[in-house]
Design goal:
The complex is a heterodimer of chains A (about 150) and B (about 375).
Chain A lengths: L2 E3 L5 E4 L2 E9 L5 E2 L5 H4 L2 E5 L3 E10 L19 E8 L3 E7 L12 E11 L5 E9 L4 H6 L1
Chain B lengths: L3 E12 L6 H16 L8 E5 L10 H4 L5 E4 L6 H14 L5 E9 L16 H5 L5 H16 L3 H15 L13 H6 L2 E3 L2 E2 L8 E10 H6 L6 E9 L11 E2 L7 H13 L8 E4 L4 H10 L8 H6 L16 H5 L3 H16 L13 E8 L3 E8 L1
Parallel strand pairs in B: 2-3, 2-4, 10-11
Antiparallel strand pairs in B: 1-7, 4-7, 5-6, 8-12, 11-12
Classes of the chains: A mainly beta (about 150), B alpha/beta (about 375).
Amino acid sequence: MSQRPLADGLYRLVDGAPRLLGGRRKSDGKLAFPLPQGAQGELYEPVELSSDGVLWSYTVQRFRPKTPYAGPGDDKSFRPYAVGYVELPGQIIVESHIATTDFNALRIGQPMRLTLMPFRREPDGTDVMIYGFKPATQTQEELTAS
Amino acid sequence: MTDVHIVGAGIHPFGRHDGKTGLDQGVFAINEALADAGVVWGDMQFAFGGSSAAGNADAVLPRLGLTGVQFINVANGCATGGSAILSGYWAIKSGEFDLGLVVGFDKHPRGAFNADPEEWGLPAWYGEAGMMLTTQFFGMKIQRYMGLHGIGAETLGLVAEKAFQNGAKTPHAWRREPVGLNVIMSSDLVSDPLTKYMFCAPAEGGAALVLASDRKMRELGLAGPRVRSAAVRTRVNGSFEVFSPSLEIERGPSPTELASKAAYEMAGLGPADIDVIQIQDTESGAEIMHMAENGFCAHGEQEKLIHDGATRLGGRMPINTDGGCLACGEPIGASGLRQVYENVQQLRGRSGARNVEGARLGYSQVYGAPGLSAVAILEA
């Protein structure tokens, strides 16, 4: 039951909960996602982005994409998946998989929370994990307030 | 500065043409345009050409004659055709040349385009994760737009229905049969809320235009619409474009709004002056959004205009009179030139059953990844 992220530097676990890694440009503080790598990365410092946001827009991928898509299965076994943009208030809007199969229930403006989801399983049994946002009935603030 | 006129226009029908290369279709369009103007290849002082998937555009040269003409290959994504026209327009406007040609052609594999993250400066995981698809971008862009401006799904269907009705009247269109609204609405979803019939498909075709200065046109005894303005603009901070792993919260204008504004200013015209309109309809939602981004209505007014038939032939703002990308398909290199070809035909009263009676001003706008737009305004 080993796991690995789809790519290094996408997210990190903080007290067992995932946080997306963005970059803060050293010159002006402007946020970027994902955290720029290589030569461009030298202009940024890593920053953990908020794990709560609201759905900004969404769609459903109804056919299996061509390469470079590296998801599980083939055209026959393909299951549609939702993707969307989630606004992290005061920070940035990030593109993400949406962790739901109840596509008709998605609404712009609904609260969302970061999660990790299995993307595909390698031949050696390793689960390749990807970040996603799942519909949250309440925001963190509301939970704290109640 | 001299005025620039389009004195010849040629097209190879769009669609699927087994046994013909993209290059064949480009050469066909060039010969049609030259014959339309009554000039020969040897008269051309310059040429600008574009092809995305059908090889180098200047591969037409051995087929047409190695005259030593300066030929410049143009590559600007889906706006390649619009960029070729702009280049030709500048070449004559500058006073450097009097007569030249712009051409675009293409031939794409079937199915949705797939993109290589590295070519776009994006990390590999973004492609592997299945988030780097133009179809998703279009679905998400119109989903949000519909939510913000109160536009219903049936309006998307009406745009596609009109496209196929117009395509049925257009010899150069690919889809030449009307498709019922029910069929459009109930066809398979590609990327919600867009169904199969609401998306254009990659295709094949070629289009070419012969451009001349005012002086040269008179000297040769030719005639043709005047290019009142041509402009290309690229994205600025805050515009929502394809292949964006993240967006800024503060939103900004689109490249289409910027190119449109520049073209109107250059021409000294406004949207109300325009008689016939060709705007990028990669999918139904794009036509709806581009109606407002090009100034033809306010955001949200599209719902009523489209339901009232304003954008159909015979309506007060006929849009995509040849069926647009939805009915013609999208050969990237040729697509923007097809729009201008259609406006030339309309302004010369050569459009047969789809003719917009008495049209004097034609507007065209082509949009391309990763966020640029090209606008041209023609006057009869």
